[in-house]
Amino acid sequence: MKQSQMFIPTMKETPADAESASHRLLLRGGFIRQVAAGVYSYLPLGYKIIKKIEVIIREEMDRIGSQELLLPAMQPAELWHETGRWDVYGPELMRLKDRHGRFFALGATGEEVITSLVRDYLNSYKKLPMSLYQIQTKYRDEKRPRFGLLRGREFIMKDAYTFHDSAESLDQSYWEMYHAYCRIFERCGLKFRAVLADSGAIGGKDTHEFQALAEIGEDIIAYSDSSDYAANLEMAAVLDTDITDKGESLPLEKTAGKAIASGAVSISAYWFKTREETVVVFVKSSDEINDVKVKNVLGTDLIESINPESGNPLHPEKGVRVLADNGLKHIAQASFYSEPEAATYNFIDPKRDLPVERYEDLRFIKEGDPSPDGKGRIKFAHGIEIGQVFKLGTKYSEAMNATYLDAEGKARPLIMGCYGIGVSRTLSAICEQYHDEDGMIWPKSLAPFTIHLITVNPKNKDQYDLSEKLYMQFTDQGYDVLWDDRKERPGVKFADSELIGCPVQVIVGKKAADQIVELASRKEKERIEISIKELPLSIVQLLDQAD
Amino acid sequence: MKQSQMFIPTMKETPADAESASHRLLLRGGFIRQVAAGVYSYLPLGYKIIKKIEVIIREEMDRIGSQELLLPAMQPAELWHETGRWDVYGPELMRLKDRHGRFFALGATGEEVITSLVRDYLNSYKKLPMSLYQIQTKYRDEKRPRFGLLRGREFIMKDAYTFHDSAESLDQSYWEMYHAYCRIFERCGLKFRAVLADSGAIGGKDTHEFQALAEIGEDIIAYSDSSDYAANLEMAAVLDTDITDKGESLPLEKTAGKAIASGAVSISAYWFKTREETVVVFVKSSDEINDVKVKNVLGTDLIESINPESGNPLHPEKGVRVLADNGLKHIAQASFYSEPEAATYNFIDPKRDLPVERYEDLRFIKEGDPSPDGKGRIKFAHGIEIGQVFKLGTKYSEAMNATYLDAEGKARPLIMGCYGIGVSRTLSAICEQYHDEDGMIWPKSLAPFTIHLITVNPKNKDQYDLSEKLYMQFTDQGYDVLWDDRKERPGVKFADSELIGCPVQVIVGKKAADQIVELASRKEKERIEISIKELPLSIVQLLDQAD
């Protein structure tokens, strides 16, 4: 395509409010434009990449037998009332009223609509399993939209839903989807980890998040330096390592003020309230308590941190449950400062002195901790969540009365899985991983064009004619070519080419009359002079080496 | 694809509220499902067809150098205030408020957003012309959504916008788009007419509507029985045919009551108010006055019918303009009943007795009238509007201050064209043209599957094995195949196959062991027994004959 006819509004200056490389470079390269906070237009170059991501997603979804459909964004409030989420979802759910005063949600997710769609039809075990997906614009009224496409209010998502008559069937679809997601992100060229995540549900249903590694990522991933193990920081299990020599047990001492005995291990107490009870949790002060683990151990869906004005956790009131992190099992000399008493207890032997009901894994993992799979040590990385697979179970089918008849003719709720990929977010994640200070360096599977053909001076007939000849030749060879035929200064053209980031650059300049051009990979930048006879082979070689 | 694994919820019964064939059959065939009034889910079969239509649109848009992008559906109210349409658009424009209280429109059309997007970049005549399009979900809160996808509230539309520095450049893009639209609808197999339409604008800018011919259509098209001429009923020009013998002029007579003289031609007067003046228009009583023509002749954007309590149009008050339809030029003996006077004027010779300022074409064309292009006679047909091309001019660029610098460095407003195709509506129009009482008969360019392979009894090993062999064979030959491998009664399978409407049906039944199957075209229905050796050639022949 001739660049003179394309809409690629590049920007010389860095936009002031762009907070991440992807946001900055997608704007500067003319890939996207902001319309409102968290609301963007995808310009021709950016939308070309989105469509390439969508093709990859469709191919991998088709491969596992998932069927594409398209649900509406306008979702009647009645459906959200059935699951109770109309009230629970909060201000993130965009809502509107039609001319007759009826309320609608703008789809933030599709569980209600898809469940209402299948409940009349998937009425027999014979019709199960069933896998459906869509690629659709979704809406979430984020409080603080940021990082361009990373946290937007209108965004493109692939969401899939599967329906089953057994846990085994769900498990099979779950892992098929998991592997399809791995293939999708690999084909997009992403460095990512599939990590164990918290389902937020009582009992802990399976869920994995797909995290693209990037400094800008808001999530922290704990991964092994020697194996495939990876988990969300909050989910990474801490091994209950047995330390045989935990030192000598000494008599308990109580001292006024803060006075931790030398050699003693400082411990802290955290108080929580659940719907039913009060809980205090002891953790080494050098460790960080993990609320998600506390919640899961208690088997509750809600815990609240409290700051009791009175109460000594060494002698708690009746009914207060006491838990401790596994780490305390291996200490004989602990030290605890009791704030209400303004006194320090020294030489606490937890087994002897603390009324602990259970020792559990209740802290966050730390860098250097042994990996939970026993292989290597834990490291941390920042991640951008680009996908998630989730065993929903019967939460929605029960609420919405979506049942099937089993082989015995008994009505049972459909067992469901749900699966998502943030398509526009994936684009951002790719940008975070594929750029340098001058612009994008697209992986070849997604580049908007493979070859950027740059005519230094299109008014020069030799340059123009040779460029035209190469343009036809590359096109015939099946390459997608962007031809910069614009009457702009060479500096502007080269800067734009760096911003746009096609893998291969072919520059037609002063030696055009001699059939000599310059060839460069966007990544390496080094330009070599080359006769056009050698060009085809050299381009193949450059592309072989490219990501 | 195996039908047992697909989500195709066909319906035996005709849905009570389905008002048109397309609505009824899209529901019954499991192509779409209603979620709310005018809001639909596209199920896998229906969405496959939508995607095929979209591929055709993209190919034809690419061919004329239009670039695809994607604008957001959430459009800030500020943009609509710039053009004044926030107030003008009325309740059809869906509106919502975000968590910070800011108002947004849900895009009913994209002029505001696209103009705001290009106004910063298309700042020089050197960057023009430019052509941009998108395929996007649009929202209009129709008062009475009906006919399924024909008049929906959430629907899929292709909208394109072109930008120019001259009327000639706009004209060129307009006709390129016009011909691209013709190719798109031809490739979809539609019987359609491109008709002259009313632009609704002062001065009458060019616009054509693309009307698919269908009984259910809400628009009436006037077309020639002998040429390509076609226009919206309201736009079809009436030839000012010269009738030489218009009879003898007699003295004017006034009679009390209704007393039309024998041989006289009854004429009627219609009163209108514009923003500035009062107008009375004479038309033969046997003709129908055409308000659009009156408006265009007056060069105003608003006229209102009034019913004056007093006033005799033969002697109107000062300042009242009097127009007459061309038809009155050719009468010498007209008759007019004056309601305020309760009297009849007979033997009016319009040229002598009526204070007519101008004779113009002010009536609706009728069936049997000569075609305005001089070729043949006019016939009427009902049409569904599936597309429109429109010369916008500078309406939006002036309102939104979108200017470019011309060769002399002078700022001028961008000249714009806009172009639309109703994608989901096109699907409905195709249904209206391609069905019989039993279901859909898809044109082969859009059929969700080309071959429907039906195994009468999949529990029979001969039948199942032969079906599987044919399934692999057809797939290898590049056909898209739907294999009905379900354990259902044959009657259910055949009825579903008619509803789904694939062009070719291959039925594997009792003679499977002898390698004999039945072959039928969905359209002709006649089944012939055929050996599987002859099948490949026969299928090619059947498809050659299909639409």
Automatic annotation (TrEMBL), chains A, B:
SUPFAM superfamilies in the cross-refs: Class II aaRS ABD-related (SSF52954), Class II aaRS and biotin synthetases (SSF55681)
Key word Transmembrane present: no
Domain observations: Consists of three domains: the N-terminal catalytic domain, the editing domain and the C-terminal anticodon-binding domain.
Subunit-structure text: Homodimer.
The species this protein was found in: Sporolactobacillus mangiferae
Main location: cytoplasm
Family stated for the protein in its record: Belongs to the class-II aminoacyl-tRNA synthetase family. ProS type 1 subfamily.
NCBIfam families per UniProt: PRK09194.1, proS_fam_II
Residue ranges annotated for the Aminoacyl-transfer RNA synthetases class-II family profile domain, each copy included: 33-443
Name of the coding gene: proS
PROSITE patterns: AA_TRNA_LIGASE_II (PS50862)
Function, as annotated: Catalyzes the attachment of proline to tRNA(Pro) in a two-step reaction: proline is first activated by ATP to form Pro-AMP and then transferred to the acceptor end of tRNA(Pro). As ProRS can inadvertently accommodate and process non-cognate amino acids such as alanine and cysteine, to avoid such errors it has two additional distinct editing activities against alanine. One activity is designated as 'pretransfer' editing and involves the tRNA(Pro)-independent hydrolysis of activated Ala-AMP.
Catalytic activity: tRNA(Pro) + L-proline + ATP = L-prolyl-tRNA(Pro) + AMP + diphosphate
Location relative to the cell: Cytoplasm
GO MF annotation, one: proline-tRNA ligase activity
Keywords: Aminoacyl-tRNA synthetase, ATP-binding, Cytoplasm, Ligase, Nucleotide-binding, Protein biosynthesis
Enzyme Commission identifier(s): 6.1.1.15
Highest rank taxon of the organism: Bacteria
Protein name: Proline--tRNA ligase
Sections of the chain in a coiled coil: none
Keyword Nucleotide-binding: yes
Lineage: Bacteria, Bacillati, Bacillota, Bacilli, Bacillales
